[in-house]
Structure formats: structure tokens, C-alpha cells
Amino acid sequence: MTGLRAASLGAPFEAVPGFKGTDLPATADFRTVKDPWTGEEVYVVPALRPQWAILHVQESDARGNARIYGSPGYDLLMAQAADRVILTAERIVPTEELARMPELTRVSELTVAAVVEAPGGARPGDCHGCYGVDEAGVRRYLEASRSAESLRAYLAATP
Amino acid sequence: MVVALARLARDGELAGHGVNSVLGSLALLLARRLHAPGLRHLAIGGGLDPTPPRLPASSSSSAWLAGSPVVLSNVDFYQLALRGRIDLMMLGCVQVDARGRINSTVIGPFDRPAVRLPGGGGAAVLFQVVRRVVVYRTRHDPRALPAAVDFVTACGNLDRVVTPLAIFRATPDGLRVEGLMPGATLETVARQTGFPVVPTADCAPVPPPTIDELAALEALDPDRLRELDFK
User: Fold this and answer.
1) Cβ-proximal residues to B207 (8 Å cutoff; 6+ apart), any chain
2) Are B147 and B98 in contact (CB under 8 A)?
3) Where are the domains of chain A?
4) How far apart (Å, rounded) are the C-alpha atoms in residues B32 and B6?
5) Residue B187 contacts residue A58 (beta carbons within 8 Å)
6) Are A74 and A41 in contact (CB under 8 A)?
7) At B224, is the secondary structure helix, strand, or coil?
8) Which residue in A2, A9, A23 has the most chain B C-beta atoms within 10 A of its own C-beta, making it the best mutation to test that interface?
9) Which residues of B27-51 are buried (b: 16+ CB within 10 A; e: fewer)?
10) Is the pLDDT of residue B231 over 80?
11) Substitution target from A22, A29, A44 for chain B, most B beta carbons within 10 A
12) How many structural domains is chain B composed of?
């Protein structure tokens, strides 16, 4: 999250409390800098700048203005950090419908490169207000993902 | 174990739990029903003080928004934590060692692990910004509680470790047994632990669940999802 936040601000890195005495910084090249005001050592995490973020939303217009119902998780941060965004949407709605309550729009068209109408696009995961977790489906996916071959077959058979 | 975890939550605290933490989330729901009605429960699914009609199997389920006046994103949650506003976290782990250091990353060397584990999910930071962290493990054996972990995923403000056999208190000198779960003795705990077991001066048996606690637990989790973690 810290790396994405640095990217969303156009910053090279961001300072974050924690990590002291753990083995994680060494594995991810997190380094320490001295706080210029207090002199204290603090970990910094380099910006993580994805070229693409792909977000599944409940409603988007054709231009890429989208509503997300339920928890947005890390979606908004990913959209803010990535160079470009692809939206997959349960429903494509007219822009005028969003304009009636623009405060509900969480992703703006300004960073969106493409919108895909993809009802059921979060399956076998859940999509708030549309469907819940499909546990048997998750198990099928895990089974299929054991080899590249079975994963290809699974993807070919999945709408 | 859920009852033991719930008893560790205090009235008025702002508390959270990890992803896929059936026991941790259930313990917070239970504490709110019983001794800590003023406990604030941050569900990782985005709800504040949620009242799911049935305990959801997944921590990302929309049911964790039921009854919540607000939807908090994961970013909102971490920002609260980083500002030092969260009092208590209930987190599962794979290993915890004599010094109270957690491993949820790898068994064996990082580059050539014997087993790659799910990862800490922010624990390396949460352990140092949340006031106290209660860790639980559903298995108590020398592999789950080794003398020293292969990889330190998180360490810091550990408060208690709860297992099916014991409650450990984190002290400056390492983990100390302060409670023996019903049926467990210091000898069985010592045999099942990968480091020398030292009791606290006030070490005592953990009182078994009361009828009220068991009834509330059953009402919150009629599908007994809490048992899945032990299989």
C-alpha cells in the first residue's frame, strides 16, 4: 500500500512506521533514511508504479466514470497509482445517471483507458450487491491453477 | 479458544482482525455481546461494528458491512493504524517463537524455502503501530512454537499468544505461560513447545467457557465455522 501511495503522489518513496527488527525490508529492498527533523531512522518504501490497474466495478459509464458499492479495498489507490486503468463493469449505465449523484462516482474517466462490460466479472469472488463468494468455484479455480495446461483449459471454458 | 480470545478484548478499545480470521473476528463479535459492549470492531471487509446475520466464511464477504454506518476501505483501515489509532489487533500466524516473533512468510531460507507461507499481510507494520497484538495459532506443537523462527515477519507490540493448550504473555524476557487451557498441564505444554516453558508468577488454569459465553458463541456462529480452523 505504501509503494502505491508514493506513486499516487508522484513521490519517489514514502516513509512508513514499523518493520524494525523484521526480515521483510531485506527481501523487498526497503531502506532506512534519517528523519531530517528528529534524526530518527525510518523505513522508506520505493514507489510502486503499475502500468495498468484492472478494476472490477458494479457500474460504469462508457467513458470510465464508475461507482463502487461496498468496500473499495485498495481499488481507488491502485487507480491513482497506475499509468492507465481498465474497468470491467457489471453494468454500463448512461453518464446522465451518474451525473444525478456525482458524489457516488469513485473512479473518474480521467485515468481510465478502457471500459469492458463484464457481468459476473468478479466470479468466483464476490461483488457487493451482485453476488457472493462462490466457494465451490474458488476450489475449482485452485484445482485448475495447479498447472499451466489445466489453467488454460479453465480459462477457455470460463465465459 | 474463541472465548479465551474474546476475554482479552477490553471495553472501549478499537479493535481489528486479519484477513480470513474466523476466530479473531468471532472473538470480537463475542466480546461485544458479553463484557465489552463498547468495543469498536473494525471488520477487514469494511464494516464498523458489523452485525452479520450469520458468521461469513470469508473476511471479504459483504456480510461484514451489515449494520455498519460506514464503509471503510483497506486504505482507510491502514491509515488509522499508522496514525496509532487502533488499540488491538487479533491476528493468526503460522509460527511464533520464544521471543514472541512471528513468521508467516517462509519455512527454510527465503530464497529456497521448504514451504512458502501466505505472508504477513501488513503485520510487520501493524505490530509496531497498534497498541497491542493478540496472536493465535490453532495448533500447539514444537513446529508452530519453535525456539527461533526462520524468518521474522513481524515483531513488536505482542501482548498475548493463544493456542489450544495455553495463553502466553509477552514479556521483555520472551513468552511466559500465564494460562493453561482446560485439560492442559504445564507438562503437556512443555512437551508440545519448541522452547523452555516458563510460567508467570500468577500462572493459573483458564476458566472454562461459561454457559452464557457458549450460548452467545453458538448464536453468532450456528454453522460452526470456528471448527474449520482446527481441521
Assistant:
1) none
2) yes
3) 2-46, 50-119, 123-159
4) 9
5) no
6) no
7) coil
8) A23
9) bbbbbbbbebeebbbbbbbbbbbbe
10) no
11) A22
12) 1
Residue B78 in this model has a pLDDT that exceeds 80 = yes
The answer to whether the beta carbons of residues B44 and B17 sit under 8 Å apart is yes
Closest partner residue to B75 (CB to CB) among A1, A20, A135 is A1
Q: What angle do CA B180, B2, B223 make, to 5 degrees?
A: 140
Q: What is the CATH number of the domain that holds B119?
A: 3.40.1080.10
Angle at A70 between CA A64 and CA A73, to 5 degrees: 75
Please tell me the predicted confidence (pLDDT) of residue B61: 81
Name the residue facing A70 among B46, B120, B153 (closest C-beta). B46
Cross-chain residue pair A22–B124, CB shorter than 8 Å: yes
From the list A1, A18, A73, the residue facing B124 with the nearest CB is A18
Q: Do B153 and A23 touch (CB under 8 A)?
A: yes
CA distance A159 to chain B (A): 23
A18 with B71: Cβ contact below 8 A:
no
Å between B77 CA and nearest CA of chain A:
10
pLDDT digits (tens, 9 = 90+) for B177-198: 999 999 999 999 999 999 999 9
Average pLDDT over residues B20-28: 92
Query: What percent of chain B clears pLDDT 90, i.e. is strictly above it?
Result: 83
CA distance B93 to chain A (A): 15
Q: Do A21 and B110 lie within an 8 Å CB cutoff?
A: no
How far is the C-alpha of B6 from the C-alpha of B180, rounded, in Å? 16
Task: Calculate mean pLDDT across residues B49-78.
Answer: 89
Which residues of chain A carry a pLDDT beneath 50?
A: none
- Which residue segment(s) compose the domain that B36 sits in? 2-230
Say if the Cβ atoms of B153 and A27 lie within 8 Å.
no
B117 contact partners, CB below 8 Å, separation of at least 6: B94, B103, B104, B105, B106, B107
**Highest mean pLDDT out of A129-133, B31-35, B53-57:** B31-35
